[in-house]
């Protein structure tokens, strides 16, 4: 297993750039899911 693997480096750079773009979208999706779960739990807890 070589220490310097250009394909791995390129793949890592692509993944990091994709994650930089996808992080805000993921954050919005997760915050929406958390809000949805919170609202559902509140509605279920209320008699």
Can you give the mean pLDDT? 80
Main structural class: mainly alpha
- Which band does the percent of strand residues land in? under 5%
Question: How helical, in percent, are the residues?
Answer: over 70%
The radius of gyration is 19 Å
- Strand elements, count: 0
| SSE succession | H
Helical run tally: 1
Form type = rod-shaped
Major β-sheet annotation: none
Query: How many distinct folded domains?
Result: 1
Stretches where pLDDT falls below 50 for ≥5 residues?
none
Distance between the termini: 61 Å
Protein architecture, described:
This protein is mostly helical and 47 residues long. It has one domain (6-44). 85% of the residues lie in helices and 0% in strands. It has one helix and no strands. The chain is rod-shaped, with a radius of gyration of 19 Å. The N and C termini lie far apart (61 Å).
Keyphrases for this structure?
single chain, 47 residues, mainly alpha, rod-shaped
Give a summary of the structure in a few sentences.
It contains 1 helix and no strands. The chain is mainly alpha-helical.
Q: How are the SSEs ordered, and which strands pair?
A:
Layout: H1 6-45
